[in-house]
Amino acid sequence: MSHSQSSACLIHASRLPCTPRTLKHDVLTTTMLHCGSRIAKLFRSPVTPPFNFPRRLLIKFEFSSLFQAKGLNTSDEESDEFLPWLERKARTKISSMLWIGKSAYGRSLFASENIRTGDCILKVPYSVEITPDNLLPKIRAILSDKIGTVSKLAIILLVERKMGQSSGWAPYICCLPQHGEIHSTIFWSEYELNMICQSSVYQETVNQKAKIEKDFAAVVPALQQFPDLESITLQDFMCAYFSVTSRAWESTKGLSLIPFTDFMNHDGGSKSIVLFDDDKMFSEVIADRNYAPGEEVLINYGKFPNAMLLLDFGFTLPYNIHDQVQIQLSIPHDDNLREMKLELLQHLTPKIKDAVGFNCPDDTFIIKYEDTILLEPSKCMEKLKTIKHTHIRHS
Ligand SMILES: C[S@@+](CC[C@H](N)C(=O)[O-])C[C@H]1O[C@@H](n2cnc3c(N)ncnc32)[C@H](O)[C@@H]1O
């Protein structure tokens, strides 16, 4: 890392929130509940490229933050009708503390009354969550076994959209993002993608698009059996696929779309996550702090670096403590010192296995933003010297 880059990290560090919030009930230790994870970390392609953020990409990330603003919390008629519709469908109360409004990042949930740390702010029964089980049996019967769960959910969304107002999910389907509203790199033009061609986001985007195209090719023969579905295009499939990667949660019961909960936007500093109660068959969210009426209520999608947020969710965070860079040294296989160099890398980056993100080859190391915040240059130099001496003695 160059001097200018490391000082930039330190400047950012001083702006990071430093007071950890605590939950009134430690929901994570409640045995009955288990937490779901956003699927981004579960659906990585096995091929892994080097992860070098060129300066211009960093500029793009910082630039995007200029558009970040506080919640707008204006309501509209469609949104006002959404929760009563879902509660009728679920035959139970889902939330009395939240309402749907518009934020700088699209729809969002806002506090309708004072919320206290530890309050359960919403409870969505499994019966109104969309899982691959919702796939029409006649479609499932002719789908290839190779079709993954993301694609299955994408097909469900496409089928329901085709049904228009006669779909039992119509109020939800019309809230999902459409082409033109999605900023994931899978929708970037070739010109835009070329600007990030040295980063792994570029390669992951290429891989992701190839996977979607392959899945679509496998799905088309099934869709062609149904006159209403044969007009579905690759672009429609890509939009539906993105709706799933950016909105679904993975839990013990598999992948699911959770209407209403998926209107919540992400805050990397939030401790609220989606919890699943398999006995009582609902998912829920517990507030990690107090909210005043009208405040936007946020949850944490997971510890994702910006590259992954961009690919799977279509946004980046200006100060993301989970951000990281992958640097590939490209140590030639015929290099006599290759093993020693790889070992050195392991010493220098012992946390490499904890890194969330794209897989990476052996000769790659990851610098995590949070590590650079904690890094004390003198300790780092000491460590380097120790490793160097150990190797000199051994060789
Ligand atoms: C699960 S949905 C959240 C609801 C969404 N805002 C909507 O209009 O339906 C995830 C999407 O919300 C937006 N989003 C969520 N958190 C964001 C954030 N912190 N910054 C920018 N966009 C965000 C992104 O478009 C992302 O793909």
TrEMBL record:
MF (Gene Ontology): protein-lysine N-methyltransferase activity
One Pfam family linked to the record: SET
A biological process (GO) of this protein is:
methylation
Query: Which UniProt keywords are present, listed alphabetically?
Result: Methyltransferase, S-adenosyl-L-methionine, Transferase
Record keywords: Secreted included? Answer: no
Domain of life of the organism in this record?
Answer: Eukaryota
Q: Which residues form the SET domain?
A: 88-302
Q: Which PROSITE patterns match?
A: SET
PANTHER family in the record, alphabetically?
Answer: OS01G0976450 PROTEIN, UNCHARACTERIZED PUTATIVE METHYLTRANSFERASE
This protein is called what?
SET domain-containing protein
